Amino acid sequence: MGDIKIEMNFYITVGEPAKPAESEAPSIDFFEEAEYEVEHTDGNRSLSTIGNYLTALNSLRHYLGRSIDVSELTADIIGGYQKWLREQNIKPNTISCYTRSLRSVYHRIAHRYRLPADSDPFKGAFTGNSKTAKRSLAREDLQRIRQLCLPEGSFLSLSRDIFLFSFYAQGMPFVDIAFLTKAQISDGVLVYYRHKTGTRVAIGLEPPMVDIIRRYEQRGRERVFPILKARDEPRVYKEYLQKLGRYNRALHKISAMARLSKPLTSYVARHSWASMAYGLNVDLPVISQALGHTNPHTTLLYIKELDDERLQQANRRILKDLQ
After folding, report:
1. At a CB cut-off of 8 Å and minimum separation 6, what does 113 contact?
2. How far apart are CA 109 and CA 114, in angstroms?
3. pLDDT tens digit string along 203-227?
């Protein structure tokens, strides 16, 4: 068999070179990418922070009513979204929290896709904190909550007990109560590490705390309270968010039943304990340690403002020292 000879002829056309096809920017679905970022967030993110991300994303999705490409997300859209939230009577600090959460997720997407910095739609958006009415309760309010007659074994009754336990336990957050295990209680001391900051907090068990714990004792259950049943991480996280929402709704009902002047939330017990401790002249660093804050300045946000009389007394003492 002879060799096969292949001849190749090249033809060159002289003239203007053909223009290359313009490369189109890839389509990036904001919500899909945002959910990916939340799902793959680093382990340092607390459950409450991840919950804020998901709540903010659901809120923006509800406002838009559709998916949106990252390239479509502009400052005008974010401004319109914030205006819409205000029209829904959402409080300024909640709007700021939603916006910060969305901005954080957007920046993670922008970093991954190397988006230009000048395309940031959150420039100029309100992300600060405005002064709000304090959420602390008076002693009389706590007495009303304690004296409510609620159906035994109901979720309302459990919510009331969890709220009171949070107050008794130095403002222990709901997330840490939900995940509290029997192994964390030993020799009359409850020890937990805050989900949000990782700060270690030790609390001596007092009689009202013990009474509530015993009310929910159940052999074979790892956790102290019957809040979470799931064990694997994805399911337990989803269940936690559902129970947190249900808990806050129950607290709203309880505040109405007790005829309180302000609605209860999971944070009110924490604020109330801090304010009452401060009113009893407990030092700020001690309150900060009890709350598991890493920065005492954060504690100041939990404490109601000094009244004018206390300010006058403080100023009087300062001026007296100068005489």
Report:
1. 26, 28, 70
2. 8
3. 999 999 999 999 999 988 999 999 9
